[in-house]
Amino acid sequence: MSQGVPVPQHEQRQITDEQFHDATLIWNYHQMGHEQRPCSAAIGLGSHDLGVATTAVDLYRAGLFPVLVFSGGNSPTTRARFPRGEAVHYREHALNLGVPDEAILVEPKAANTGQNITFSRELLAEAGIAVESLLLISKPYMERRSYATCRKLWPEVEVVCASEPLELDDYIKSIGDEKLVVDMLVGDLQRVIEYPKLGFAVEQEVPGDVYDAYERLLGAGFDSRLIST
């Protein structure tokens, strides 16, 4: 190839075009496609992704909620990046971007999505904030699982999901590891499928083409983020 001619994106990938297509099906399924609208409060779900906090700031500035809970302690995958805890670092990021301190509540103990919802609900109640509708802000591929979890644990509240507006290619670039991203997509879909059986979430219909893509990626070894069932 001549110098100065960019390599097409599909040639730069370490995964095959077919695997990228399957991952894209799952990526799109994980996103709920909710129309953003004003809600009583928001929860920014802690993770390795600081984009959750940035997106929360953008939505706060847009006037979509008056109070924001950042929820999350530490996990093996976030301890190095956020040594003081996910929620604490999210809060610091939001403050640096101009969100007033009085608009932020911190829930620093949650270790999973169920605890994110449960502990944040308790914190909002303690603060005297009535919640009729809730904006859940998560990683892009975690929208559906967070929605299903909240519908199970807080069924009386109306749930709207949001995440950083990224395509799969852009998210892969932000993480820098194609295999890891696909592993995470597959792992979250496994949780969407299995968690209702464990009482952790409401059931979500999985379209046939999405499930077939999931099976192909599992067979190809994208399995580092699976739970034991």
From TrEMBL:
It comes from the Bacteria. Pfam families: DUF218. Residues 52-156 form the DUF218 domain. InterPro entries: Cell_Envelope_Assoc, DUF218, Rossmann-like_a/b/a_fold. PANTHER family: DUF218 DOMAIN-CONTAINING PROTEIN (PTHR30336:SF20), INNER MEMBRANE PROTEIN, PROBABLE PERMEASE (PTHR30336). This is YdcF family protein. It comes from Streptomyces eurythermus.
